[in-house]
Amino acid sequence: MRAEALDPVLLRTFVAVADLGSFTAAAAAEGYTQSAVSRQIAALEDVCGVELFARGARGVRPTPAGEYLLPYARGLLDRLADTARALDGLRRLDTGTLRLGAFPTANAALVPRALARFRARHPGVRPVLREGTTERLLPMLEAGDLDLAVVSTHKIPSIAAEDLVTLADDALLVALPSGHRLAGRDRVALGDLADEPWIVADDPEAVAALRARCEAAGFVPQTPLRVAEWISKLGLVAEGFGVTLVPALAASAAARDGVVLSAVASDQPRRSVYAAVGRHARRSPAVTAFLADLRDVAGNLRDTARDPRAAGGER
After folding, report:
1. What are the two backbone dihedrals, phi and then psi, of residue 212, each rounded to the nearest 5 degrees?
2. 103 lies in which domain range?
3. Domain co-membership, 107 together with 135
4. Average of pLDDT values for 228-232?
């Protein structure tokens, strides 16, 4: 006998008749006619190949076979009810998992603030976060290992993904030591920093991206200081060892003593920041809700970044 032959509707009627001792009472309780209940019990008996009830003038009672089946039927119906409750919990965002990835500077402010908003409304959903470059995150999204990834065109001109949600057109600011000769300016031209040591990650793509921006401004950058972490980069800037570019989305997290953030004058280097959604997650309630939070936080950070000194401070 195949398990799928056991129709839950028939099992529910079977339990109701067993509990109430009457086809008539079960029909009233379940919203059926008495004849419909009789047909359902007969259908279940045909499937099982045994009589489940002994019919009498005073009602019905389970046969030994019916008594044997009864706890299994109750257990199956309970598990079905648990499954329905679990699905409702996923739809209501009372439970579940949100698997997301983001490039490092998105994890400075954008993703943590969006996650904080999301958690305040949906504390039962567990976030799982992976950090990596756009080039690493997109294959993970394609493979179904992530539901959503925050990616950018920092190192690549365009992103090959089907479902892209625009979050920001992110300007790159320049971080200067507070005692730098240009620290008092609201905007600084890249060409004015041609003789400065540039601090950049020791990564061929990161160096190439910086070089392309600087060559467009008429010079080849000196990059003697190769460090990846933003804490290290800004620490070196604060001590006067060089300058570095800071994405505007990370400006509020880059505030520290000894560092001033300035906008890049004219033709500002920009990158597009997107949320890429996995094909399997297009209808995910958690992804839909988190996307709304990402958009709101990106908008707030964009407004803050319009005044980089407010974010980075005069310190």
Report:
1. -60, -40
2. 97-312
3. yes
4. 87
- To which H or E segment does residue 296 belong? helix 285-305
pLDDT band at 264 (very low <50, low <70, confident <90, very high): confident
Mark 186-212 as b/e (b = at least 16 C-beta within 10 Å).
eebbbeebeebbbbbbeeeebbebbbe
Number of folded domains in the chain?
Answer: 2
CA distance 47 to 99: 43
Measured between alpha carbons, how far is residue 206 from residues 7, 17, 43, 211 in Å?
60, 72, 70, 9
Q: Are 121 and 290 in contact (CB under 8 A)?
A: no
**Tens digit of each residue's pLDDT (9 = 90 or more) over 115-154:** 999 999 999 999 999 999 888 999 999 999 999 999 988 6
Contact between 165 and 254 under an 8 Å Cβ cutoff? The reply is no
Whether 135 and 264 share a structural domain = yes
Task: Report, as an integer, the average pLDDT of 84-94.
Answer: 88
Question: What are 278-294's pLDDT values in tens digits?
Answer: 999 999 999 999 999 99
Angstrom CA distances, 69 to 27, 120, 208, 267, 301, stand at 20, 46, 71, 77, 62
Task: Output the pTM of the full model.
Answer: 0.71
Percent of the chain beyond pLDDT 70? 92
CB 182 within 8 A of CB 189: no
Taking the C-alpha atoms of residue 32 and residue 34, their distance in angstroms, rounded to an integer, is: 6
Q: What is the CATH number of the domain that holds 20?
A: 1.10.10.10
